[in-house]
UniProtKB/TrEMBL annotation:
Belongs to the DNA polymerase type-A family. PANTHER family: DNA POLYMERASE I (PTHR10133), DNA POLYMERASE NU (PTHR10133:SF27). This is DNA polymerase I. In addition to polymerase activity, this DNA polymerase exhibits 3'-5' and 5'-3' exonuclease activity. It comes from Rhizobium helianthi. Residues 371-577 form the 3'-5' exonuclease domain. CDD domains: DNA_pol_A_pol_I_C (cd08637), DNA_polA_I_Ecoli_like_exo (cd06139), H3TH_53EXO (cd09898), PIN_53EXO (cd09859).
Length: 994
């Protein structure tokens, strides 16, 4: 190598992880060998080499090498035993691909370099500094922050996913320090991914400020006594040794002994036959054709290469950390993340594939005449074999009820992409498998009862064959609202493996921008209106359950469901990659489906006697309120009638603020009554209280016993993942998330939720999570410090605003600060705050003004969030979830203001929702790893709270593990600037545990 040469160093391990996590499951057809990561790696490498050799695209390398981690056992482990200790073993399906990827690198005629005892980053650093010393230029193909310390005028990084060069200005813009200070910055901040400790509580911004003030880490530690902030000063002094250790861990070695000198890295011409032979062995058809054409060789005469498949310990590769989080940005991907192997192999960009799919499937009309009815076992076997051949199948169940815990399975439908070599062709074939359609016995009480229709596959045989397909991890099952189908099949002994949900994909893409139901998605993306359920099952009194629908009609309806679902997946899945939302779907949505399904299946026990007694108490209290209401009104009337109530309040009594609805009646909404009550009017206050009591009685104490399952004797709520804009879950049938906790009656209802004998309920509740998220996203120093120090946040706010000492603070002052703290999150107005605190609007306005003066970062956050929402039409949570507000620019001031308030709140509420989703996904694996999985069962999620049923003897071990998992739920994806706090208690009923 000489001056003027250009060396490309590829972070091979990073490529592996991007390829593996971006692709849906992909297996070699002949033997089921997992090859998804190999496919993605080969396509990324081919694209990089093709672009590198094209002088019109960019720089042309003279030397080229791919660098891998040999194993997780390196010299850093000797320095600090906890280094990367939080990482788990690689997924089983990735293990054999490590060796295959190394063979792929050699097939590309590229140096494949790894060194025992050192990480790939150290090898890259050694080569980069050696080449730079000669006068050569270096490009490191990676976006890993650990490598940014190497950037100089002659050493650049290149993020191939974003097609972006990373130089000195980019490092400064990202981290606030130049590359030469990245080691010190990382030593202060630490790294949750690699379990580098750093100094607790020091984030990147603070670290950058400290380094700017003191110059470097040694100087900072030597002069730490000069730091003005007391807590920060004490923290740094106490943890100085941790910072020094962290520096040793993050600093890359540049003296790795190299078996292959720089001169040996010269970029050789591709050996076409050698590469084609390997690609044919992997069965990558489209990429094989591309390579053969580029290398001018005849693929048809080249035999597949002999490849060695390594399993177990011989297939060395880096460990994965918990949650499969990496420094690499897996959501910003190119063709490797595109769903459909042929698209990937073709090297298309995700955005182009998404557009092509939409165009193809919106113009290719659905033909019901081609649907098949599977009436025998042999035909079913053929369909299952076809699904396994393509590795992709649309799936749907037909049942007798919307309740998955009580629905009877009637049949299933399957859809298969007909032409796997051209996924944009629009060809899909679908079939319906009837299993339990019945006839007769509907009207005649003296008949023998309903009989199974002839020529159906017997239920037991059909389920046995379906189990083989649905539990096969190499076949991706695609469903709409998958949780329902998952639960139905689980009740029949089948646990679905490897799946996608089109409803959730749509939700990730367009939360708040439209309906995510199948019919709405079909019309929006396919230009097709599906058959309505009532058209096959009837409506009103003539409606029948699906098991009584004629099989021919059922086939058209059911097969269409699977067909439409598969087409929607083909159209929508590439958009996740194209819009950088793969991470959100893979980390927050898809993993939650089985978690919620298991929670719904478990249910919770209720005490009917308690509810019956409470129902009587509420009835008596409501009757007492009614007498008082009649006395205040001067007459008896129907309190539940909005018309009669309006006539009393605004007609007879002439109360202020009355307005009429479009029907000409007085408005008696909850807000109208609350406003009147806030003004001191006694009758509206009594009516508000009466409404709350009667709603509690009808919705809970009377209704809850009707939801008890006849077999399990427990209540099984249903959770909806895609029903809110912000990512919050909702529950229904029954809704357990709206039981009030701030009044005595609501708390009494919670006492009816009980544990079974020998168990207790554990309630684990995030403390003030939304205020903590606000402190993080708005980066408010006072709030961050208060949370870090464990100070009463409302007392601190009151002290900051009103100059009152925290010690012995009057309760009323703290209450006002609390109202403002929570009100700010929801964009409260002076009018709203005045009503809440029963003060003048001008005084409330002064409070809000003073609040923003004391915490200017909050106003900055609100204004920047509104500006972002107006520009993009959406806002994002800290984990990248998008909440869309298409009417943020409405010409209607009230509509616009509502959307602005919602947009301000969404990143906060949505981030909190994402954190608890992550906790739910992580807590059961943590319990299983501790041997507690059979003794602890997660039952309910109520906003910021998780409820578990735990064996008495397991409580002592389970509770701290639950708390720790929840408090660390954002990790390793994100290190919050404020600590999360979880309060947990165990008791015999929900109220006592809360």
């Amino acid at each position: 190598m000489k001056k003027g040469d250009h060396l490309f160093l590829v972070d091979g391990s990073g490529f592996i992880f991007r390829a593996f996590h971006a692709l849906p499951p992909l297996t070699r057809k002949t033997d089921g060998l997992p090859v998804g990561a190999v496919s993605g790696f080969c396509n990324m490498l081919w694209k990089l080499l093709t672009n590198a050799r094209d002088t019109n695209v960019g720089v042309t390398p003279t030397h080229f090498a791919v660098i891998f981690d040999y194993s997780s056992k390196t010299f850093r482990k000797e320095l600090y035993d906890g280094y990367k200790a939080n990482r788990s073993a690689p997924p089983e399906e990735l293990v054999p691909q490590f060796g295959l990827i190394r063979q792929a690198t050699r097939a590309f005629n590229l140096p494949c370099i790894e060194t025992d005892g050192f990480e790939a980053d150290d090898i890259i650093a050694t080569y980069a500094r050696a080449a730079e010393a000669i006068g050569a230029d270096v490009t490191i193909i990676s976006s890993d922050k650990d490598l940014m310390q190497l950037v100089t005028p002659n050493v650049h990084m290149y993020d191939s996913m974003k097609d972006k060069q990373i130089g000195i200005p980019d490092v400064i813009e990202k981290w606030g320090v130049p590359p030469e200070k990245m080691i010190d910055l990382q030593a202060l901040v630490g790294d949750s991914v690699d379990n580098v400790p750093g100094i607790p509580g020091i984030g990147p911004k603070t670290a950058a400020q400290l380094l700017e003030e003191f110059g470097d880490l040694d100087t900072l530690l030597a002069r730490a006594g000069e730091i003005k902030q007391v807590k920060r000063r004490e923290n740094i002094i106490a943890n100085a040794d941790l910072a020094r250790l962290s520096r040793q861990l993050v600093e890359l070695r540049t003296d790795v002994p190299l078996d292959m000198p720089l001169d040996a890295l010269v970029l050789e011409k591709q050996d076409g036959p050698k590469l084609v032979a390997f690609l044919k062995a992997m069965e990558f058809g489209t990429l094989t054709r591309r390579v053969a054409e580029a290398c001018d060789c005849d693929a048809s005469v080249i035999e597949p290469a002999e490849v060695l498949v390594e399993w177990g310990a011989t297939a060395h590769g880096p460990d994965l950390d918990p949650g499969v989080e990496h420094n690499q940005d897996l959501s910003k991907t190119d063709a490797t993340a595109v769903a459909g192997a042929s698209d990937i192999a073709g090297g298309a960009r995700a955005v182009d594939v998404a557009a092509a799919r939409h165009e193809a499937f919106s113009t290719h009309k659905i033909d019901h005449s081609g649907y098949a009815t599977i009436r025998d076992v042999e035909t079913l076997k053929l369909w299952i074999a076809a699904a396994k051949e393509t590795g992709l199948v649309g799936f749907d169940t037909e049942t007798t009820s919307l309740d998955p815990m009580q629905a009877e399975l009637v049949g299933v439908s399957l859809a298969i992409q007909d032409n796997t070599q051209s996924p944009n062709s629009g060809n899909v074939r679908a079939a319906y498998l009837p299993l339990a359609h019945k006839s007769g016995g509907n009207e005649d009480l003296f008949s023998e009862g309903p009989k199974l229709v002839e020529n159906q596959v017997p239920m037991a045989e059909g389920l046995a064959l379906l189990k083989e397909l649905l539990e096969d991890p190499s076949v991706l099952k695609v469903a709409q609202n998958l949780k329902y189908d998952y639960l139905v099949m689980k009740r029949h002994g089948i646990t679905m493996q490897s799946f996608d949900d089109t409803m959730l994909i749509s939700y990730v893409l367009e939360a708040g921008a439209g309906n995510h139901g199948m019919d709405a998605l079909s019309e929006r993306w396919l230009g097709h209106t599906p058959i309505a359920y009532k058209d096959v099952a009837g409506s009103g009194k003539s409606a029948v359950t699906f098991d009584r629908v004629d099989i021919e009609k059922a086939t058209a309806y059911a097969a269409e469901d699977a067909d439409v679902t598969l087409r929607l997946w083909l159209v929508l899945k590439p958009r996740l990659a194209a819009e950088g939302l793969t991470r959100v779907y893979e980390r927050l949505e898809r993993p939650l489906v089985p978690v919620l399904a298991h929670m719904e299946e478990r249910g919770i026990t209720i005490d009917r006697q308690i509810l019956s007694r409470l129902s009587g108490e509420l009835a008596q209290k409501a009757a007492s309120f009614e007498d008082e209401i009649y006395e205040l009104a001067g007459e008896k009337f129907n309190i539940g009638s909005p018309k009669q109530l309006g006539d009393i309040l605004f007609g007879k009594m002439g109360l202020p603020g009355g307005s009429k609805t479009k029907t000409g009646q007085w408005s008696t909404s909850a807000q109208v009554l609350e406003d009147l009550a806030a003004q001191g009017e006694p009758l509206p206050r009594k009516i508000v209280d009466w409404r709350q009591l009667t709603k509690l009685k009808s919705t809970y104490t009377d209704a809850l016993p009707t939801y008890v399952h006849p077999q399990t004797k427990r209540v099984h709520t249903c959770y909806s993942l895609a029903s809110t804009t912000t990512g919050r879950l909702s529950s229904s049938e029954p809704n357990l998330q709206n039981i009030p906790v701030r009044n005595a009656e609501g708390r009494k209802i919670r006492t009816a939720f009980i544990s079974t004998p020998g168990h207790k309920l554990i309630s684990a509740d995030y403390s003030q999570i939304e205020l903590r998220v606000l402190a993080h996203v708005a980066d408010i120093p006072q709030l961050r410090q208060a949370f870090a120090d464990g100070i009463d946040i409302h007392a601190m706010t009151a002290s900051e605003m009103f100059g009152v000492p925290v010690a012995d603070m009057p309760a009323e002052v703290r209450r006002r600060a609390k109202a403002i703290n929570f009100g700010i999150i929801y964009g409260i107005s002076a009018f709203g705050l005045a009503n809440q605190l029963s003060i003048e609007r001008s005084e409330a306005g002064d409070y809000i003004k003073k609040y923003f003066e004391r915490f200017p970062g909050i106003r900055d956050y609100m204004e920047s969030t509104k500006a972002f929402a107006r520009e993009h039409g959406y806002v994002e949570t800290i984990f990248g979830r998008r909440a869309h507000y298409p009417e943020i620019k409405s010409s209607n001031p009230s509509v616009r203001a509502f959307n602005e308030r919602a947009a301000i709140n969404a990143p906060i509420q949505g981030s909190a929702a994402d954190i608890i989703r992550r906790a739910m996904i992580q807590v059961e694996p943590a319990l299983n790893a501790a041997g507690l999985g059979e003794r602890v069962r997660m039952l309910l999620q109520v906003h910021d709270e998780l409820i578990f049923e735990v064996e008495d003897e397991a409580i002592e071990a389970a509770m701290p593990l639950i708390v720790e998992t929840m408090e660390q739920a954002s990790m390793p994806a994100l290190h919050l600037r404020v600590p999360l706090k979880v309060d947990a208690r165990a008791a015999a009923n929900w109220d006592e545990a809360h």
